[in-house]
Amino acid sequence: MRHLVATLCFLALTPAGAQAPQQTPAPTATPKPLGYPSPAELKKLPLEQLVDLQITSVARRPEPLSQAASAVDVITSEDIQRSGVTNFPDALRLAPEMEVAQISGHEWAISTRGFNISTANKLQVLMDGRTLYTPLFSGVFWDVQQTFLPDVEQIEIIRGPGGTLWGADAVNGVINIRTKPANETQGFLLWGGAGNEEIGFGGIRYGGMLNADTAYRAYVTHDSRDSLTLSGGGDAHDDYQITQGGFRIDSKFTHDDLLTVQGDAYGGTFSQLNGGDVDVDGQNIIGRWSRDLGENSSLSVQAYFDRTHRFVPDVFEETRDTYDVEFQHRFWIAQHDVIYGANYRGSHDDIGNTAAVAFLPATETENLVSGYFQDEWHLVPEIFSIIGGSKFEWNSFSGFEVQPSGRFLWTPTKTQTVWGAVSRAVRTPTRLDEDVVFYNAVTGTPFLIGNKSFDSEVLVAYELGYRVKATPQLSFDLAGYYNDYDNLRSVEVRDDGLLVIDNLLKAQSYGATLSSRWQATDWWRIDGSVSLFHLDVVRGNSTDVNHGRGEGNDPEASFVIHSGMDLTKGVFFDSYLRYVDNLPSPPTPAYVELDARLAWSPCKNLEVAIVGRNLLDNAHPEFASPNPAVVPTREVQRSVYATIRWSF
Amino acid sequence: MELLRQLRLSIGLTLTFVWACAAQPAPPGEYSLKAVFLYNFVRFVDWPESAFTSPNDPFVIGIVGSDPFGALLYEAIAGETYHGRPITVVHFATPRDIRHCHLLFVSQGNRNHYDAILEQASGQGLLTVGETESFLDRGGMIALTTEQSRVHVRINGTALRNSALGVSSKLLQVAQIR
User: Fold this and answer.
1) What was the pLDDT predicted at A57?
2) CB B76 to CB A52 under 8 A?
3) What is the H or E stretch that residue A517 is in?
4) pLDDT exceeding 70 applies to what percent of chain B?
5) Average pLDDT, stretch A377-402?
6) What was the pLDDT predicted at A18?
7) Are B26 and A56 within 8 A, CB to CB?
8) pLDDT category, A163, cuts 50, 70, 90?
9) Residue from A24, A28, A42, A256 to probe the interface with B (highest B Cβ count within 10 Å)
10) Longest distance between any two alpha carbons in chain A, whole Å
């Protein structure tokens, strides 16, 4: 394990390797994208036609990752396409240090830097500015997070606390999914596929212009997957299907103003091994206005409404309406890059309680008001900066919370970066911590209850990172941390035998991830990462019935290695080797899996591919059932499917 | 029979791909177009003779910092001349490295260093071309900005007038002057 020098990719954005001002010979063999007019052809056009030409998607130039003062990674739309994944959880497996374990046909445990359970609660997740986690348990229902995958621009993953800018519950990390602007998704795009486990997935998108300054797109997508298999044999009867449609409009109605309106609606049905089908539906709409206030200042305001509904027969039903308004101002003055903002979120729920579990009261409105600021001070421009800031937040569960962070970024040479951070972040109480009651199935009396005085879980994190570009083709990124948690959730035994949720656990975790990217030749890229993790839970006076092991089930080691080859013109072969160490409780064996994709693109607007996932085993468990007698462990099966992607 | 069936299938598939690929031509890439604009600036701007030290001097396009063009710019200038002078491309890694050239391209990646670059690049016979409005605010002459999937030519009239360069009306007609 440890000798595996693995990976990541910070090669992007290299100044063409030029050192001294000397005449540069013309590069040979830079492949011209197929089907695009070449400069030689464009030269024949008169000047007045050149200014009318519409160009293909604009290359985004985000801040170079190599200069970020945190452990950050980006899964690009190209990474998603080359991997052949069909959903977000599988896409997240591409990133370093992400823990992704599929539990059933529609459930995943997803976290980073530990504390991974089916209701993992230490990750903030957003899509196009909309928060995806539910205040029910501060986690994400991954089964309803969809969009038309080819229109995703990137998935940004920040490991470590992001509470200063991203707010509460960005404790162990932040995932920020961004779709492409509408002007980059013009015309028809048809994408889809089918196979043995993927019964049928894909959709169609059309984009056009409403007027010269306003672009739009609309899409519809569907995903239908076969059920998993049971450990020991048998079908898990948990097949999955969901259909979603949506739109996005971007209008640059003046030179300085950009207005975006987008929305989605979905409906899905997930079969279950024990119990009737889970039914879900949801609708959301978001408006965002950003304005350039001169050269060194920009302002943005956004508001959204999000409704979700989930019905789990005999367990619970949740209808939730979330209203969110946010304002942000960013400006540069002297050597300071300052950002501040404010946010209000109201979330109203209506829970259908059952004989098994209840949330009391059955309806509740959670209010959250927050403000934040951050100053990135370039003390020695291009060499050394310090970044300080804090979020101040008031929420209706735990009251006032402060989440400060201090960071430094040192770039001693052009090819090396050192950064460090100390941050405080909190995971605020949820309905699951305060209001839940679980009933004994036989007697009908409560056996586990929430705690109205549950307090926020608190993390103080110490992080250190180093990046180096050893050669123009080879780069490394090392990030380590020591996390000190207090007030962690525990389940205590009261004198009368009733189980009560409390805050009596503490824990320390430490770990590191080494990633690298190596452009071995102009047609072969190898990248990968290896992560180590260790957690010590301190039980102190706690009588936690889970012996301190109920809040996380994490591998101590994992790696992912990717080989991407451009075999010949238009033929691409990608393979991924993934390793996840055993999980302690409930014990789940370690596994190694191989995913591969062979694609052929006869021209720019068409690509066909065959994808194999989990090729090394017929089936493997990723997250064992805590109570196999009641619910057997489900296993993820080998999957092979064909895909097509055609734009016209 | 089986062979024949497979053959038919593969012909059918091939025809499908040919048909699918025959869909509308794809639009050009951003930097293919910008490379052709740079070539057009060489055509439609006049440099003073003093910008050249000898009759055999080549016309030099400089690129400071990261080069978004790769081979595209070479393709755009292949076989072209400026009044008989061959056109060459040089790269400057940092603003400090900027040396004699006739057209300096300043990519967006340099946006924190515009002042340093323009200070270094002040010369009577040098056309500065950037990619952002703020490049013009700082004193750059032309910006090739990308908005709504189109490339616009924006000109800083003051900066150009103060230079020794002559700009053809053809170029002015397609540009937005401020």
Assistant:
1) 43
2) no
3) strand A499-521
4) 83
5) 90
6) 36
7) yes
8) low
9) A42
10) 88
| CB contacts, 8 Å: A48 with chain B | 173-174
Contact B32 A37 (CB under 8 A): yes
pLDDT (tens digit, 9 = 90+) per residue, A598-624?
999 988 889 999 999 999 999 999 999
- Residues A367 and A349: their CA atoms lie apart, in Å, by 12
Neighbours of B132 (CB within 10 A): 21
Measured between CB atoms, does A253 come within 8 Å of chain B? no
In angstroms, rounded to a whole number, what is the distance separating the alpha carbons of residues A94 and B172? 49
Average pLDDT over residues A455-469: 95
Q: Note the pTM of the prediction, 2 decimals.
A: 0.79
Contact A47 B78 (CB under 8 A): no
d(CA A9, CA A405): 26
What are the tens digits of pLDDT across the range A183-227? 888 899 999 999 999 999 999 999 998 987 899 999 999 999 999
CB contact (8 A) between residue B149 and residue A39: no
Instruction: Identify which of A441, A537, A449 has the alpha carbon closest to the alpha carbon of residue A491.
Output: A449
CB A175 within 8 A of CB A157: yes
Closest-CA distance of chain B to residue A485, Å:
39
Report helix, strand or coil for B71: helix
The tokens of A338 are what?
A: 């300052």
The residue written with tokens 């035994």 in the block is A493
Give me the residue from A36, A51, A61 closest to B150, CB to CB: A51
Which of B25, B71, B148 has the CB atom closest to A213's CB atom? B148
Continuous segment of H or E residues that includes residue A349: strand A336-352
How far is residue A462's CA from residue A407's CA, in Å, rounded to a whole number? 10
What integer pLDDT is reported at residue A58 of this predicted model? Answer: 39
Determine the residue among B10, B14, B15, B21 to mutate to test chain A binding: the one whose Cβ has the most chain A Cβ atoms within 10 Å. B21
- How many residue pairs bridge chain A and chain B with CB atoms within 8 Å of each other? 169
Of B72, B112, B153, the CB nearest to A51: B153
For residue B22, the SS3 value is: coil
CA distance A8 to chain B (A): 21
Residues in chain A closer than 8 A to B132 (CB atoms): none
Tokens matching residue A513 = 């991830």
When pLDDT is averaged across residues A270-287 and rounded to a whole number, the result is 95
Strand pairing category for B127-130 and B103-106: parallel
Q: What CA–CA distance (Å, rounded) separates A146 from A137?
A: 20
Residue A28: pLDDT over 60: no
Predicted confidence band of residue B17 (pLDDT cuts 50, 70, 90): low
For the residues of A233-283, what is the DSSP string, one character each? SSB----EEEEEEEEEEEE--SSSEEEEEEEEEEEEEE--SSSS-EEEEEE
Alpha helices in A71-197 (DSSP H): 77-83, 88-92, 163-166
Give the model's pLDDT for residue A526: 96
Dihedrals phi, psi of B148, to nearest 5 degrees: 50, 45
How far away is chain A from the Cα of B97, in angstroms, using its nearest Cα?
6
Task: Give the pLDDT confidence score for residue A8 in this predicted structure.
Answer: 27
pLDDT for res A12? 30
Alpha carbons A9 and B80: distance in angstroms, whole number: 38
What chain B residue is nearest to A17 in terms of C-alpha separation? B93
**A51-105 tens-digit pLDDT:** 777 665 433 334 456 678 899 898 989 999 999 999 999 999 999 999 999 999 9
Q: B40 and chain A: CB distance < 8 Å anywhere? A: yes
Give backbone dihedrals phi and psi of A145, rounded to 5 degrees, phi first: -95, 100
**Which positions 344-383 of A are in contact with B (Cβ < 8 Å)?**
381-382
Look up residue A621 and give its two tokens.
């468990």
Q: How many CA atoms lie within 13 A of A291 on its CB side?
A: 8
Supply the pLDDT for residue A286: 98
For residue A525, pLDDT beyond 70: yes
Q: What is the pLDDT of residues A415-449, one digit of tens each?
A: 899 999 999 999 999 999 999 999 988 898 999 99
